[in-house]
Specification:
The chain has 246 residues and is an alpha+beta fold. The protein has two domains: 194 residues, Roll (Ubiquitin-like (UB roll)); 45 residues. Helix content is 43%, strand content 19%. The strands form two sheets. Strands 1, 2, 3, 6, 7, 8 and 9 form a seven-stranded mixed β-sheet that branches. Strands 4-5 form a two-stranded antiparallel ribbon. The longest helix is centred in the C-terminal third of the chain and has 41 residues.
Length: 246
């Protein structure tokens, strides 16, 4: 049952409680994130941003209109990440053999639910680069295509989640929204494309998913058969009471 629920999480990484809160982000907010700012507007926004923060994670603007700063990314992963095996001191003759075997032997590790990481990036850093940098910091060997970066916002008690495209610039979104994590936060989750990108998984992982899928299917079939059998018995009991002389 534990493996079965894990496979369900694979197909939908957002639990039912959170699903009730997540809504489609308004189109006008998406368009706002696509607007370009002039150099003077950027300088003004950087100044306003820095005036609101209480730590030393300032943004720095350059004369050419570019700027650098920090983003905080929260991790909401339901599946374990894959780490390389511990590296031991090897002789030169063992090195090639180690490199060949290290991709086959991986360590699975669940990140804590409250895990988060700060990254120092530039205004030109794209979403795909952010994902790769995060994986590198944790020495994750999984395919970056397995992951996606989401923009999470709150408004009037509602939570909005939007998957960012690979070419969007997270620092620009942070600058426009300001430093408040309630107004906007960045979340790394499993990639949700409507259909799972099975090509991003290894052969052993796919074999394991097939085994879990079969178990889950069998459990659902048993539950359906049980439910229909119960309904059938109740109907027969009702019919028996109707035909029994009072």
């Amino acid at each position: 049952m534990m493996e079965s629920s894990l496979f369900s999480d694979l197909l939908s990484s957002t639990d039912s409680k959170e699903k009730n809160l997540i809504l489609k982000i308004p189109d006008e907010q998406i368009e706002l994130g696509k607007q370009e700012l002039s150099v003077s507007e950027i300088q003004q926004k950087v100044k306003e941003y820095n005036a609101q923060i209480s730590n030393n994670l300032y943004m720095v603007d350059n004369k050419d209109g570019s700027y650098t700063g920090f983003i905080k990314v929260h991790f909401q992963l339901v599946r374990p990440i894959s780490l390389p095996p511990p590296r031991q001191s090897l002789s030169l003759m063992q090195e090639d053999d180690y490199q060949g075997r290290r991709m086959k032997r991986r360590t699975s590790f669940y990140l804590p639910k409250d895990a988060a990481k700060h990254l120092h990036i530039s205004s030109e850093t794209r979403v795909r680069e952010v994902i790769e940098a995060l994986l590198n910091k944790f020495t994750v060997v999984d395919n970056p295509a397995k992951f996606a970066l989401f923009e999470r916002t709150e408004r009037q008690g509602q939570v909005y989640m939007r998957k960012l495209s690979d070419d969007e610039r997270p620092l620009y979104l942070r600058l426009c929204a300001g430093p408040s994590e309630t107004v906007l936060s960045l979340v790394l989750k499993e990639n949700e494309t409507g259909d799972v990108n099975w090509h991003a998984f290894s052969f052993p992982e796919l074999c394991n998913f097939l085994r879990i899928l079969q178990r889950e299917e069998e459990a659902h079939v048993r539950e359906i058969v049980k439910r229909y059998a119960l309904a059938r018995d109740m109907m027969k009991q009702a019919m028996a009471r109707m035909t029994t002389p009072g």
